[in-house]
Design goal:
The protein is α+β, with helices and mostly antiparallel strands and about 160 residues long. It contains 6 helices and 5 strands.
């Protein structure tokens, strides 16, 4: 169901793959899980947001950053249950009997990097793709009347396949 939903949503929204509660995986399991997700994305041709590859980019630093971000996908994030005071500053953490996972610590979670990408460094790229590709595709479908069998209009199969709680 997830694969089919992402394939259908990919023509309507920017998809950035994220692994939630990644602190439940060992570092090795996380690496393998990320590889498996990226293999599935490639195999099923799921249209995820691709950080610009920099062919037309003159700034070497931006090219390196985008390559690093592509390598990090899917982003592994940890949610926070509480905020503690550490050295006079608030730190968002998830407490366990054996220690703490800091949400904003790059060694524990990709959350801080993902937040920076979404709200600062790549917001322009996300907006451009939404406006110039996604919206134009939607607009073309609507104007041509092609939505009668469009990917988002026939959701009846998805509703049947989704369990009701």
């Amino acid at each position: 169901i997830d694969i089919e939903m992402m394939k259908r949503l990919g023509s309507r929204v920017n998809i950035i793959p994220v692994i939630g509660r990644s602190d439940s995986l060992t570092p090795r399991e996380l690496v393998l899980f990320k590889q498996r997700i990226m293999n599935d994305i490639a195999q099923y041709e799921i249209p995820v947001f691709s950080f610009p590859n920099g062919e037309d980019e003159e700034d070497e630093e931006t090219v390196e950053e985008n390559a690093e971000l592509r390598a990090m996908m899917p982003f592994a994030v940890v949610g926070c249950e509480e905020v503690v005071n550490e050295d006079g500053r608030p730190v968002r953490v998830r407490n366990y009997p054996w220690g703490m996972v800091q949400v904003d610590n790059d060694e524990h979670s990709d959350f801080d990097r993902l937040r920076y990408v979404l709200l600062n460094s790549h917001i322009g790229d996300l907006r451009d793709r939404t406006q110039n590709e996604i919206y134009e595709l939607y607009r073309t479908e609507k104007l041509s009347g092609a939505t009668a069998a469009g990917p988002m209009d026939d959701m009846s199969g998805m509703q049947q396949a989704m369990p009701v709680a």
